[in-house]
Specification:
The chain is α+β, with helices and mostly antiparallel strands and 335 residues long. It folds into three domains: 6-98, Chondroitinase Ac, Chain A, domain 3; 106-239, Immunoglobulin-like, CATH 2.60.40; 248-334, Death Domain, Fas (Orthogonal Bundle). The protein is built from nine helices and 18 strands. The strands form four sheets. Strands 9, 10, 11, 12, 14 and 16 form a six-stranded antiparallel β-sheet that branches. β4 (59-64) and β5 (70-73) form a beta hairpin. α3 packs across α8 (309-322), α5 (266-275) crosses α8 and α6 (281-288) packs antiparallel against α7 (293-306).
Length: 335
C-alpha cells in the first residue's frame, strides 16, 4: 500500500468458460478486492507451484472487471510462495495457467473433517479433502459449517506435502477391521477444488476408536506421500481444549515475547516451514547466522509475520506438531 488504508477482500467463483475461451484455467482462488480508504499499488497472490519444477513459468494473473472483461497480467516477480503484480485499480484478481501447460507436482493440503460417533450405533465418518495449498482454509471451514452445522469437527494436522494434479491416489489406514474407505482411489483434480470443497475420501468407522493412522499413496506406489497419526475426539466438546480460542496470528502476537525466548527445536521448525513453502534456503541461512538463540527466534518470527496470516497459520500448525507442550502452556495462559 502507498499509505495507511483499509482493504476488504473475498473469494468469488471463476467463470471457467470465459477462461477456457482464452486457453487458460484457474491456478488459485479468484479474489475480489475493495479498497475503502488509501491506495494499493501491489498484490502478492499465494501460489502452490513447486518453484524449481517449472510450473511457475506458466503462471499469470487474470484481472476480471465488474463487466466480465478479462485481461492477463504477467507477474512482476514470482517467489517461492507468491506471484507479485503491480496494479492501478481494483476488482477481481486470480492466478491462472495455460490449459496445455505440463502437469507438475504442486504443494497441497490434507484437510480432515470428522463426524463423531452417533448413539447408540457408535459409527463415525472421517472426511479427507485433498486441496491445493493456496485455498483459503478458513473459507473451507466456514463452508463445511454452513453445509453441515456443528455435526463435523475440523481436525488440525500438519497438512503440507506435494501432489500431482490428475494423478490417482489411494487412502490406507492402520485399522484392522470394521471400517470402509470410499472411493478406493481418486484423482487429485486441483483446478476443480477452488469452490467445491467436497471430500476426496471418506473413512467409515463402525466402532469407537480414539486414534487412527492415515497413509496416502499414489496408485501403484509403495511409499506413502503423506502419513499422519490422528486423534479422534468422541464429541465436539472434546476438541475445545486442543483448538486455540484465537487465530494463529493473534496467538503469535499475544505470545511474541515468550516465543522469542522459549522457541526451540529450530531445525524441526525449519523443515516444517520449508515443506509448507513458508521459508526458503536463503531465509533459513539468514536465521542461522544470528549469534544467539533469541536473535534467531526474533528473525524467524519477523520473517513469518511479514508474510501474512497464511504463513503464521503454518507456523502455528508446525509448532503444535514439533512442540505441543509449549503451545498448550501458552494457550492455557490465555484462558
Amino acid at each position: 500500500m502507498e499509505g495507511e488504508g483499509e482493504v476488504l477482500y473475498r473469494t468469488v467463483p471463476w467463470d471457467r468458460r470465459l477462461l477456457s475461451q482464452r486457453g487458460k484455467r484457474p491456478a488459485g482462488p479468484l479474489f475480489m478486492f475493495r479498497c475503502l480508504k488509501g491506495s494499493v499499488s501491489q498484490l502478492h497472490l499465494p501460489h502452490c507451484q513447486i518453484y524449481n519444477s517449472g510450473g511457475c513459468e506458466f503462471l499469470s494473473v487474470a484481472h476480471v472487471t465488474d463487466d466480465d472483461i478479462i485481461e492477463f497480467l504477467p507477474p512482476l516477480e514470482t517467489t517461492d510462495t507468491h506471484v507479485i503484480i503491480n496494479i492501478s485499480g481494483f476488482s477481481a484478481y486470480g492466478e491462472v495457467k495455460d490449459e496445455d501447460s505440463p502437469t507438475v507436482p504442486i504443494r497441497a493440503l490434507v484437510l480432515l473433517f470428522y463426524k463423531p460417533p452417533d448413539v447408540p450405533k457408535k459409527r463415525s465418518i472421517l472426511n479427507v479433502l485433498l486441496l491445493p495449498r493456496n485455498v483459503v482454509i478458513r473459507e473451507v471451514q466456514e463452508e463445511w459449517k454452513r453445509r453441515n452445522g456443528d455435526k463435523y469437527i475440523y481436525i488440525e494436522t500438519n497438512p503440507c506435502y506435494q501432489l500431482t494434479p490428475n494423478k490417482e491416489y489411494k487412502l490406507f489406514t492402520d485399522l484392522t477391521d470394521e471400517y470402509l474407505i470410499q472411493p478406493k482411489d481418486a484423482e487429485f483434480v486441483d483446478f476443480e477444488s477452488y469452490e467445491n470443497y467436497f471430500p476426496t475420501f471418506q473413512l467409515f468407522i463402525q466402532t469407537v476408536v480414539e486414534q487412527v493412522t492415515l497413509f496416502l499413496k499414489d496408485n501403484g506406489g509403495e511409499e506413502s506421500v503423506w502419513e499422519r497419526l490422528v486423534w479422534l475426539p468422541a464429541s465436539p466438546t472434546d476438541v475445545s481444549s486442543t483448538v486455540s480460542a484465537v487465530s494463529p496470528a493473534a496467538f503469535i502476537r499475544r505470545h511474541r515475547m515468550a516465543l522469542e525466548t522459549r522457541l526451540g527445536l529450530l531445525q524441526s521448525l525449519f523443515r516444517g516451514l520449508q515443506d509448507c513453502g513458508v521459508l526458503n534456503d536463503e531465509e533459513r541461512e539468514e536465521v542461522d547466522r544470528k549469534s544467539t538463540k533469541t536473535l534467531q527466534n526474533q528473525a524467524l518470527l519477523n520473517m513469518v509475520v511479514r508474510k501474512g496470516s497464511r504463513a503464521q497459520e503454518h507456523l502455528y500448525q508446525v509448532l503444535k506438531e514439533v512442540d505441543p507442550c509449549l503451545v498448550e502452556d501458552l494457550e492455557e495462559q490465555t484462558v
